[in-house]
């Protein structure tokens, strides 16, 4: 960031440069812009900002995060951000859940070995699906659509029951596992390299999905359903990236999804597990109710 790239606000007599955060703010730029060079303490209190919001604000404080306990405990001093994170998280023990749900705006390194580390990030990923089949058009379309629907169930199930499992503070192995597969995303939600599944875990998921489809569906429809499942998976990945860094227009499908996913990250960690759709949240009772806003959000 150059010295001219500034958007300063005040909070309890301290200054914060939130320029890098403007496009990521869940409330949109238009809610924040009127507060340049103004104190936001009352505004944040009146709008019932979450603990995660107050914690994230510390990232942008002039001079860096404070160790002053009067401002609340800063959990980042429990780890060394200059070292690979995967080897450290298990030592957090019972502090792990609180730490991993306290977001920061940084890039995170999992492994010290550069080759292994590069397998865990996705700077740019293009997937192509080529399918040749002689079936009639309508049954083919229906089978592909079924595959997409199957993926939405997998998407919800993985996010809720695997990615959001709660590791015991006494189990270093479970903390390692949770952090590696999803905890890191809640810790650094703006790290663009970690919003799309890397090739290796993506291949594992695709293989497992194919095995499940093979057990349930006959061979005559298996390829088409798998094609739909992979299509749903790619759509999910692209939507997830867009929800974090895209700028959807008001009253569009993605506008509501972005608001919804932001609520999952910063306020309702135990609900709102749907990414590309809220269908299964509604069915399983984990849907997040979004309040009506007087002013539309602009990202």
Automatic annotation (TrEMBL):
- Superkingdom of the organism of origin: Eukaryota
Chain ranges of the Cytochrome b5 heme-binding domain? 1-66
Coarse class of the primary localization is endoplasmic reticulum
Molecular function GO terms recorded:
fatty acid 2-hydroxylase activity; heme binding; iron ion binding
| UniProt keyword Transmembrane helix present | yes
Topology of the protein relative to the lipid bilayer: Multi-pass membrane protein
Q: Which GO terms describe its biological process?
A: fatty acid biosynthetic process
Required co-factor?
Zn(2+)
Which cellular component terms (GO) are annotated to the entry?
Answer: endoplasmic reticulum membrane
**Pathway involvement of the protein, from the record:** Lipid metabolism; Sphingolipid metabolism
* Keyword line: Endoplasmic reticulum, Fatty acid biosynthesis, Fatty acid metabolism, Heme, Iron, Lipid biosynthesis, Lipid metabolism, Membrane, Metal-binding, Oxidoreductase, Transmembrane, Transmembrane helix, Zinc
Intracellular or extracellular location(s) = Endoplasmic reticulum membrane
Q: Which InterPro entries match?
A: Cyt_B5-like_heme/steroid-bd (IPR001199), Cyt_B5-like_heme/steroid_sf (IPR036400), Cyt_B5_heme-BS (IPR018506), Fatty_acid_hydroxylase (IPR006694), Scs7 (IPR014430)
Q: Which residues are listed as membrane-spanning?
A: 137-158, 195-217, 223-243
Gene3D superfamilies in UniProt: Cytochrome b5-like heme/steroid binding domain
State the similarity comment. Answer: Belongs to the sterol desaturase family. SCS7 subfamily.
| Protein name, UniProt field | Cytochrome b5 heme-binding domain-containing protein
Q: Which organism is it from?
A: Aromia moschata
